Amino acid sequence: MKKTLILLLAITYVVGCKQPQTQAQSPSAPVQKAISVPAFNGDSAYQYTKAQVAFGARVPNTKAHDLCATYLSETLKRFGAGVFEQKADLQAFDGTILHAVNIIGSFNPTATKRILLFAHWDARPWADNDPIVANRKTPVMAANDGASGVGVLLEMARLIGQQSPSVGVDIAFFDAEDYGAPSWYKSQQNTEDSWCLGTQFWAHNPHLADYKAEYGILLDMIGAPDATFYREQVSEQFASNIVTKVWSQAATLGFSNLFLQEKGGAITDDHVYVNQIAGIPSIDIIDFKPQAGGFATYWHTTHDTMENVDKSTLQAVGMTLIHVVYNEPVSNQ
Ligand code: AHN
Ligand code: ZN
User: What confidence tens digit (pLDDT) does each residue in 72-120 have?
Assistant: First the structure.
């Protein structure tokens, strides 16, 4: 009898002990907290793209450019970003002084772990690839080549302003990317650095002296209905882990038809200078088909208009990026 009681007590003790033990363990265990990722709205990104195009060609030193700069700054402010307008007079390949403005919207400014998202917001002054020779000095509307990436980033800014991710985010709209020497220009010597002037300036003179970001993502020509994104080679060289992160996230969301696990071209684009000068490992999401003529047929033509921007492509790119940002843990440990 006594033995049975002791045994019973012992069992009760063991059982009774086990219960609170498991309960006590769970809060300290590395539990995966469910992360809520805001719903990216492709229609909204499309509207932000269209709003830029409605100003006309946003060529530096024009009224459309001025008005669009104000629109971008005001919209970022409305979404709760701290906005830096970095003005610079930059000299183009032909000696023209461009009154450029880089616009940076910062969210969660005190966070030390930061992600830089960027796109160029200027429009190319000349449609030098136009099939009609008479059009080759006409400005480009730059719906896809410029505005689409900015449109996606404005929609991201709207969402980030509503619900903060763990990390800090800086959204940079760089100017004077597309003032590179046109094909009809007399000299094609040393023209490589005639592109990406706004980004080159920022990389040498960041908006904050001690600015650092863990990594950067550039969006360039991301809106076409038939867009495909190959693993761009400069991105691979400087930040292949980020390419993998983004492409894997796209695959998880069902977008492996857009984000192809294949080698792309090596493109002189804004990310080159962010990598080389600013030292921030950065990738380029760009619609460049290495085996099929490279950029789209309407690239740098008068046909880079809203007809070549597709809501569902904006949706796929934006959804991928918003998932990348919100899944980013606050520290690297
Ligand atoms: C070159 O054409 C050398 N690079 C492409 C950069 C670019 C222009 N992205 C958009 N427009
Ligand atoms: Zn361009």
Answer: 999 999 999 999 999 999 999 999 999 999 999 999 999 999 999 999 9
Distance in angstroms (rounded) separating the CA atoms of residues 174 and 89: 14
Between CA 260 and CA 160 the distance in angstroms is 27
Kindly report the number of other CB atoms within 10 A of residue 196's CB atom: 26
Q: How far, in Å, CA of 215 to CA of 143, rounded?
A: 26
Q: Which atom of ligand 1 is nearest to the CA of 286?
A: 9
Q: Whose CA is closest to atom 8 on ligand 1?
A: 178
Place of tokens 């830029």: 52
CATH class label, 42-326: alpha beta
Q: Report helix angle 311-326 to 233-252, nearest 10.
A: 90
Q: Whose CA is nearest to atom 10 of ligand 1?
A: 145
Token code pair at residue 129: 């690839």
Contact (Cβ atoms closer than 8 angstroms) between residue 123 and residue 146: yes
Using CA atoms, how far apart are residues 212 and 192, in angstroms rounded to an integer? 26
The per-residue pLDDT for 1 is 41
213 backbone dihedrals φ, ψ, rounded to 5°: -135, 150
- Kindly list the domain boundaries of the chain, sorted by start residue: 42-326
Ligand 1 atom 4 nearest Cα: 268
CA 26 / ligand 2 centre spacing (Å): 53
